[in-house]
Amino acid sequence: MFHRYARLVRSICFDTTLDVDCAQDLAQEVFLRSYANLCQLRDQNRFCSWLAGMTRNVCREWRRAHRRQRRWHVGIPADIPAREVPMGGDELADGVRQAIAKLPERERLALHAFYLQDRSAAEARKIMDLSLSGFYRLLERASEHLAVVLQREAESRE
Q1: Is 27 exposed, middle or buried (0-12, 13-18, 19+ CB in 10 A)?
Q2: Domain limits, the chain
Q3: Band of the pLDDT at 77, cuts 50, 70, 90?
């Protein structure tokens, strides 16, 4: 189970934390919770979407705790944008990662599941709990939004 879904879970966690180590810690928490709550899964065919939902919940909890911690200890308002992603080398890849991070959550998940995790459209739509046509519409909308974000970034650098 872990090896099949670990990349997807870590990707979702990284979108939230923008920190590889923290994302790995959150992914470990997700798998511990999923194991503990496996008896609550009613339909085994929906495991992947159930796991993705649990991952989003763990990430929301982390975000809430992180905001409180930043506000309490550092005095930084919670609405300050997250730091840039330290991915190194390739500026284009870094720019695309940062642009994906700015997309709405469902669009990010669709892009991760289909393109970054190399899943088929049928598998990715199950993760999103959508029909195949609904998934393709979401993927198209995500691609359009990504193009707009990348265009804005390019214009701001000029």
Answers
A1: buried
A2: 1-83, 87-158
A3: very low
